[in-house]
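Moderator note: this is an archived Q&A kept for reference. The question asked for a predicted structure of one protein chain; the sequence and the answer are reproduced below.
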Amino acid sequence: MNGIPPRKGFTRGRSWARRYAMQALYQWQMTGQDAAAIFDQFLSEQEMGRADLTYFQELLCQIPLRVTAIDAQLVPFLDRPLEQVDPVERAILRIAAYELAYRPDVPFRVVINEAVEIAKKFGAEQGHRFVNGVLDKTARQLRPQEGGHA
């Protein structure tokens, strides 16, 4: 914001926050549990020291509140109904679409790269390609001022 690049630890903390948020949102999708209860569970059961806890909490609590709007941004670019998207990849897509729509301070290239890296680690085989394709189109729609594609 002030022209000074973020510290490496800051961006790493957000990377960990996204990773934990994907796991927590997966749990929310599968169980319907309250996001605040999942947040408390993660704090008590996971080693969260590397994560930006404020960002993790924002992702975990805001995405369920805005899921209808987030999903509406993704659906036009899916090759199947959202319910048929692998639940891990669905959580990843929702995090990235949230960031594209509601966190303009995060460059779209960072959003897409982070999502693809999480998909490579946790998603289905070749799932990262699917995530990249959907998010590339979503970014063009939501962030045309940034050139909108990675």
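Archived answer notes: The helical segments are 8-31, 35-45, 53-65, 67-74, 87-102, 108-122, 127-142.
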